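New to this. Explain these tokens.
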Amino acid sequence: MTSIGGLRLVSPGIATAAETIGFTFEGDDLTGLEGETIGAALAASGVLDLRQAGVGDRRGLFCGMGACQDCLVEIDGKGGQRACMTKLAPGMQIKRHDPDRNALAALASRPEAEAPLEERDVAIVGAGPAALAAAEILARGGARVVLLDERDAPGGQYFKPLAPSHTFADQPTDKQFADGLQRREAALAAGAEIRTGAMVWQAAIGSAGHPELAVLSNGTAGRIAAKAVLIATGAYEAPHHVPGWTLPGVMTAGAAQTLARAYRVSPGHRVLVAGNGPLNWQVALELARGGATVVAVLESARPSRLGTLPHLLGMARAAPALAFEGVRMRAELMRHGVPIHEGMIVTALLGEGRVQTVEARGANGRVRRFEADAVSLGYGFLPSLEVLRMLGGAVEVDPATGSARPRRDEKGRTTRSGVWVAGDGAGIAGSQAALAAGEIAARDILTALRRDGGDDAPARARRSQALDFQRHLWTLFEPAVKAPEPKPDTVICRCENVTAYQIAAMRDEGVEDLGSLKRRTRLGMGRCQGRYCAGRALKMLRGDLSGASEADLFAPQAPARPVPVAALAVEKGEWGGHREVPTDRIPRGAHRSDALPARADLVVIGGGVTGAATALYAARAGMDVVVVDRSAPNSQASGGNAGSLHVQLLSWDFGSKAMAGGSPAQKTLSLQRDSVALWKALEVELSSDFEIVTTGGLMVAEDEAQAVFLRQKAAAERAVGIDTQVIGREELAALAPAISQRMVVAAYCAAEGKINPLKGTPAIVAAAKAAGARFIAGHQITRIEASGADYAISSAAGGEITATRVVLAAGGWTRHLGQMLGTNLPISGAPLQMLVTEPTRPILKQLVAHADRHLTMKQASNGNLIIGGAWTAGIHEETGYSRVLRESIEGNLWVAERTVPAMAGLHLLRSWAAMNINIDGAPLLGALPGHPNVLVAATANGYTLGPMMGQITAALAAGQDPGRAIEYFTLSRFG
């Protein structure tokens, strides 16, 4: 590898302050400066292609702030490290991050115990202008305040300090640097505690009613409870979805500015700066001042057009210094010979291995080409609201971007008691407005804490003045040319490589919501959790977003960023049964309601796998079938299923832990075995790929007592026709080398396997539709009433449908439907959660469970490890949706890493929760008492049993013999 020189910038008043240190990248010797990030050091050597995203496809530094996860590298065997956030150290051996060659060195030390809960009056998440202004006011008001920020120094994007690799020759003459330094020092002098390297990865309302934040501080897990939380997490830059935007060398304006401003590095020899607004001018100027060649600035607005004088004067009145700074920047760019092309937008980025050519279109339609080896794109910002949404604060959809924006009042109060928001996360309005908003929120928080908040009138006046400036500024910079619509092959989801064509194909199939799109294409399932694709995808699905609601967005997930598994793994006491929750709360927001038809032969309530399979077989039997659900098909428990095809009993379904002594679960095994066979037959019949594999299931034991349990369980399974054998340590090691050596024996069932629920249920839905079934979404059923020989079914969204027969297949919510007809069904909702790691090379072939712990594990075809085991989730009291619990995440990870030690070398990528069904270990089938034409189809092992449940229920609805004895599975077993 040849180091490309000339990328270090030199600026008056700033000097190199660090020693040159050596490191290797892909085996080649390179040098960098102590105190700079790996990303900056590699960029200075001309290396921008980092993460291996697929065969022949590499990604590089893009966001520069740790959000996109595209600059990943492996450092000394530790994979998944963000080059933009990790400081260079002498002797580091760095490689591109490639899941197929991940060394899986442990990323962190497992904590010995759960971290104690720290208490503060106020916790501030973020460290930008709003956060620093608020921290000073709060500390001076006597509040115990802690400021938490993921970066290694406070300041955020705007006040980002100069890196330790450089220093000012004297005092900073740059006003932005000086103001940031003053703000940091003022907050500390007032008594605020500032923790850097502290990422809030999960947030919830604790048992005391106050927000609790789960924090990872430089690799160590902690917890902080606060009476008030101020979310000042700022914003990240909006994506520009054009061909080539994922090429190495293409980055956001913030990333380019961080390289140039904080680390004195140019991202390339010839840099093109494009976007909308004066930030791009500043980026170009930072580069030009340091000696880089700035090819051009492409501005999508035309601020020099005739008629702008009133807005220039308005800006001058509101903020004279800022207005003058804009004029001065433009003049200095001209002195540096940097051309500014107004009314021009980037339409494509071309190159082999990295960007080489930029195509842009002017307002007149003319297309121009520019040669560049680095491109800065700055087309706006999107609020960062993950923490707010985890706490239950309400958001709405911005129709212009398809992203979330918070619902809050003028003081920053959100809909969640005890939670405020300020800065760009509350609305993009610039640094001066953010500073004022931080002060306003801080004074209101002090008042809420029964302290003297003081007068916020001066801050409100400053904010009003700043907003007036922004109004004139963005009228001046209103784009004169629209962003191009994505071409079919344009990548929209850069994490999972989902293209515009794939999204359009799903839309044409009738997909209207992000959840269904996610399940069908994996869009939003990657490391950035949909930050750079969800808004565009929603706009492509829906077009007009004026009527969109919070329910149209992706649900908030923990962790907010990928975190090392080992850092969170803490042993927890495991519950002795499913934790049931009330299921009568209607979730906040609603799916758009489809028109409800007037009548059908059969109405199936519930659009999961059981309801869809019932519709398929009933429609094939000649019945007119309508499936009604409050959401899109496969969007609740079935869509949230991990896809295990269970044939042997889980540890809590046998012996002392089992409900009803385990007999119901044991009697269900033959149904499960036959349903797996039916799944395989459907895969062939429907010419689909459900990703079914039956490589066997292992339940492992780590001592003799657990081994005895396995032998007894295996004997019980063999008694009902399930071939399960107990194997010893040597055979276990040969079958599954990744299993810990502490596991001494295992029960092996060759018939067990896995399926991809994101492919299985949609194929059944499509087949049911092809057979004539209709699927109607957006209807919460409020009434089922006998009407002569028929049943009238009413919806909260309005309308009524009449049917001769009804199937209740609403999972954990089925009890409420039975109550409408006078039957109290023994069905409860028990939300469970699942965890997903980053993808890695194949290490786990079988489905894995534990003999005495709550664990199920499997590796998906794309390399993700999917981890569950009936760890309980909860219901969010504000939103009504299922939510993951920190305690269950930590406990589940402890068992998983104990069983498969290689887990310590992976990051937890995401989690989700879904409403499981709790009965007694066996399905519930058959008619309601007094209502022979109303059938129940419910099971806790729903995905494995889905097609079999549907086949049996459809036969019963059609008055046919189901082909097997089902008397045991009816209500009669409950007496």
Summary: The radius of gyration is 29 Å. Residues 1-5 have pLDDT under 50 and may be disordered. The longest strand covers residues 220-231. The chain has 22 helices and 51 strands.
